[in-house]
Amino acid sequence: MKAKHRKTLEAIFKKPTPSNIEWKDIESLLLSLGAHISEGSGSRIRIQLNEVRAVFHRPHPEKEADKGSVSSMCRFLNNAGVKPDGI
Q1: Phi, psi torsion values for 65, nearest 5 degrees
Q2: At a CB cut-off of 8 Å and minimum separation 6, what does 86 contact?
Q3: 3 state SS of 59
Q4: What is the maximal distance between C-alpha atoms in the chain?
Q5: How many Å apart are CA 34 and CA 18, to the nearest integer?
Q6: Residue whose C-alpha is closest to residue 58's, from 17, 32, 87, 30
Q7: In angstroms, what is the C-alpha Rg of the chain?
């Protein structure tokens, strides 16, 4: 995993939940982990990683994910068996 992806993963699991993670960095992390991402209607995207599926909304017009999206992504990654080192 690249250092940029590791930094994004650690930020997603950080407490208190940050709200300054750019969505493109989250998608890049997911792709590096082997996730399959497909477009839904509007700003929805469907993500499958390690047999776990979820639907998320890309933030707009902002580039950063809000705290709720980051918390949901943390739960999704946890359910898919992905955690940063040390957790």
Answers
A1: -75, 140
A2: none
A3: coil
A4: 37
A5: 24
A6: 30
A7: 12
